[in-house]
Design brief:
The protein is mostly beta strands and about 850 residues long. The chain contains four helices and 60 strands.
Length: about 850
């Protein structure tokens, strides 16, 4: 009602005078003095910001009016929106003059018909006014306007036989008119004006009268019989029948006017809804069969104008109530970022899919998100293997063009890059949850907007990113249809226990890599803790993602003790049994002190497509909680900047453990050998580290510095020409962090970095002298999987050696330059594939692998190792 349409640059003509002075007025031009001209106008009235006519009289105990020419009097229809922001009374009401003999509506000589809204009985009634006085000719229902906020639509019709009918709609929309009654009256047959009159008393009633959407037009008699809009089974033997208009109570209440097939016959009762006379409740003697389609036939039911229905039909199906379980309905498609538009409407929505063989009523269900949760869904039967769109109420009409759509209030705002979505039952139970991220698209173009994320296999609802991808539908998504990326994608991977951390001495939280089956994970006997703790006393699987389990212990954990926690007999929601990844360490953590955690490796000058990383090492005997640990850098003035928390939730770093921190762990894994995937942590924003020199800090929860490194690119090995992608490694955990002698470039043989494991330049103080060994002694490079290559293993007592490795044949001729100026760690290996310098096959026979090593201190050594090149027939 409040929404207005108007041209911004040209005055829209709001009142049209044709024939007998019809009126169409919605005040969208912001002016009531012209087009048409209302009398008397003036300070008693204004057009408010939402383009309604509003009272503006501030005089107590006053009566004022507004009128405009109108000659429509017979065979006519009047309609108007009225808003009264008060409880009406005998001194506070509004009159709508449908016809008036003069513009002055207060004059005793003015005759006509008017609708009074209010008066002593708080009613809406029709009156006739003549010089003889005022007569009520339709007495409305009492108490209708006994509200502090009355929002009404009033409609009056007068047909050619002078039968008047008064309708009111207390929703103000014009979609729910109810009749106040009818009367035949031909006393006054003409009109000169239409008008509005207000009577008010004290200041509490000032400026609280609102009028809009006025229509005066010739009356077109209703000669069309009502039709059935839908029939809905709401219980095992009750059907609600919704008609296209209000029906006559007498004919609508005759049970014999209704009949259903499949041996149901005539209902035993028929009741017209007292609040919505377009709705009839039918109750049958026999119960419905679940899933069976019934055909309802209706005859002789009349509308308010006597039009009789003949052979009206509607189908209905009853579904036995089903108690939905986890994953019975899944969130199968998400439009989180609708712009730039592809070919779908520019609004957010999700799709729900029923994965069961039962029909499920979504009434009362809600959608939750990080910004809150939606209002409850209306009754909607989601049939087996079918889908429905859920969106905001303002968007349901545009989405309904693509398939079934449900409108909910307060639809949660979806974050473009990452969010958690929850599907909840009326009892607040979680049916499905999705914690999506924009990297699930797997497509850099589509993740920028306009495309949906689609679930690949709805029978595999808890596999996360491996079961989602960007829509392949050219419209940008496939709302309420089979997903464009739909395919078999069963979960064949066993769940992995990633870590466990104590919430306190008697409670431990376990974190899995995916959702686990709640029944099996809820069995305390499936968990054991070492060192005398044993089986937990109780277990709770935590919603909404069901990838966390809380254990309550019967004995408290002790300080300075590392426990081993084992999980057995658990499955994921796909039924895969947990395997070898079922044991983790846990224990009570402490805050790191100085040098408990040290900086062990840093990549500060990555390749153009790479990323910085920092590796830290726990050299203490403490269990350190990474949620209480931070990395940072320093500004040019020495201030600490770029502080970043290593983990948002408790993650434990045990003695002698490594941890690598970066903004993109995928890039680290693709660029270097990573031996422990669980030792990678990704944070949103790393501190800034310059390519030439800078500072790395480790801070504890109190903000104290536990380790600090002022690095310099000059610390790299001098013979490395291109230092991009080369990490600096710590040589000795126990040597000072800030000593240049304690740092060295990562070895060539490791790919210039060793994230998550022991450094290639780590000093081994075991007294072993340098050596080079070859294995096997006979190599047969014929790709048969046996001895196809030779491995050159080296082991030196200190880092910093450079190696040249050359292969000579039996005549002393070089046939392959295996390594030239290769930077070595203390231990490593190289491979020879048995081929020559140009990858040609070499003759069988004896060869010599000559290795020469040297460092910048002038030390050098040479090694000769014989090897036989052979081939198997």
């Amino acid at each position: 009602m409040i929404t207005k349409s108007f041209f911004p640059f040209t005055l829209f003509l709001l009142v049209i005078f044709t024939g007998r002075a019809q009126i169409t007025e919605n005040f969208s031009d912001g002016n009531y003095l012209t087009n048409p001209g209302w009398i008397p106008g003036g300070a008693d009235w204004i057009i408010n910001p939402v383009y309604q006519l509003q009272s503006n009289n501030t005089t107590a105990n006053s009566t004022y009016y507004l009128s405009t020419p109108s000659t429509v009097a017979t065979n006519a229809e009047w309609e108007i929106y009225v808003g009264l922001g008060f409880n009406t009374s005998s001194a506070n009401y509004a009159d709508i003059f449908l016809t008036a003999s003069s513009s002055d509506l207060t004059a005793s000589s003015t005759s006509g018909y008017f609708v009074r809204i209010g008066n002593t009985d708080d009613e809406i009634s029709l009156y006739r006014k003549t010089t003889a006085g005022i007569t009520k000719i339709i007495d409305g229902v009492n108490g209708i306007t006994a509200s502090v906020n009355n929002t009404l639509k009033i409609k009056v019709t007068r047909d050619a036989a002078n039968q008047w009918t008064l309708f009111r709609d207390i929703t103000g929309t014009g979609n729910a008119f109810l009749s106040e009654g009818s009367v035949t009256d031909a006393t006054i047959g003409n009109s000169a004006f239409f008008g509005l009159l207000v009577k008010q008393s004290t200041a509490s009633f000032f400026q609280r009268h609102f009028f809009d959407d006025i229509i005066v037009k010739p009356y077109s008699a209703d000669i069309t019989a009502p039709v059935i809009e839908k029939a809905t089974a709401i219980s095992p033997n009750t059907v609600d029948v919704l008609f296209s208009e209000h029906i006559e109570i007498t004919s609508g209440s005759v049970a014999a006017n209704y009949s259903a097939g499949s041996m149901l016959g005539v209902p035993r009762a028929s009741v017209v809804d007292p609040d919505n006379k377009a709705l009839v409740h039918l109750t049958f003697q026999r119960s419905f069969t679940s899933g069976l389609n019934y055909l309802l036939t209706v005859n002789n039911v009349k509308d308010l104008y006597g039009n009789r229905m003949v052979n009206g039909n509607a189908a209905f199906t009853y579904f036995e109530p089903y108690a939905p379980r986890l994953y019975d309905v899944v969130i199968s498609e998400v439009m989180a970022d609708p712009t730039p538009l592809v070919k779908l409407p520019g609004n957010e929505w999700i799709e729900l899919t029923n994965t069961t063989a039962a029909a499920i009523d979504l009434q009362g269900w809600r959608i939750g998100g990080s910004t809150g949760q939606s209002g409850p869904m209306q009754a909607y039967i989601l049939l087996p293997d079918s889908a429905v769109i859920v969106c905001a109420a303002t968007n349901v009409s545009s989405m309904a063009a693509f398939g079934p759509a449900i409108a909910v209030t307060a639809f949660p705002s979806l974050d473009n890059t990452a969010d958690l979505l929850l599907l909840k039952t009326p009892q607040n139970g979680i049916i499905h949850s999705v914690s999506y991220k924009d990297d699930w698209y797997g497509n850099e173009l589509k993740k920028e907007g306009g495309w949906t994320l689609e679930m690949i296999d709805t029978r595999n609802p808890c596999s996360g990113s491996t079961n989602w991808k960007a829509s392949a539908d050219l419209r940008g998504g496939s709302p309420a249809k089979k997903n464009s990326v739909a395919a078999l994608n069963p979960d064949v991977s066993a769940p992995r226990l990633l870590r466990a951390y104590p919430a306190d001495s008697l409670n431990i939280i376990l974190v899995f890599d995916e959702a686990v089956d709640s029944l099996k994970a809820g069995n305390p006997g499936n968990f054991t803790i070492s060192d005398g703790i044993g089986v937990p006393s109780s277990v709770v699987v935590l919603s909404p993602l069901f990838d966390r389990v809380s254990l309550q212990l019967s004995k408290p954990l002790l300080r300075n003790t590392i426990y081993t926690l084992t999980a057995i007999g658990l499955t994921d929601c796909g039924g895969n049994m947990i395997g070898k990844s079922n044991m983790v360490k846990t224990g009570l953590s402490e805050v790191a002190d100085a040098s408990d955690i040290v900086i062990n490796e840093i990549l500060f000058n990555p390749p153009s497509n790479g990323t910085d990383y920092i590796e830290i090492y726990n050299r203490s005997k403490k269990i350190i909680d990474l949620s209480q640990t931070y990395v940072a850098s320093r500004s040019s003035s020495g201030g600490i900047i770029g502080i970043a928390q290593l983990s948002m939730e408790s993650t434990l770093l045990f003695p002698d453990d490594f941890l690598v921190v970066s903004e993109n762990t995928a890039i680290v894994k693709s660029g270097y050998i990573v031996q422990n995937m669980d030792a990678l942590i990704e944070i949103n924003t790393m501190p800034s580290f310059n390519d030439d020199k800078g500072t790395v800090l480790i801070l504890n929860a109190q903000g104290y510095v536990t380790d600090e490194l002022h690095y310099d690119e000059k610390w790299h090995f001098k013979l490395i020409d291109n230092r991009e992608g080369v990490a600096l490694e710590r040589i000795d955990y126990d040597a000072p962090t800030q000593s240049q002698e304690n740092w060295h470039s990562a070895a060539t043989s490791t790919g210039y970095g060793t994230p998550t494991y022991k450094n290639s330049q780590y000093r081994v103080n075991d007294g072993v002298q340098g050596e080079v060994k070859i294995s096997p002694e006979i190599v047969s490079p014929d790709n048969d999987g046996q001895d196809d290559f030779a491995q050159v293993d080296y082991h030196f007592s200190e880092p910093g050696y450079v190696a040249n490795i050359t292969i000579f044949d039996a005549s002393g001729r070089p046939v392959r330059y295996l390594q030239r100026n290769a930077l070595c760690g203390t231990k490593g290996s190289y491979r020879w594939d048995g081929l020559g310098e140009k990858n040609q096959r070499l003759s069988t026979g004896l060869y010599v692998i000559f290795t020469e090593i040297f460092n910048l201190k002038g030390s050098a050594r040479r090694f000769k190792n014989a090897i036989v090149l052979a081939r198997r027939k």
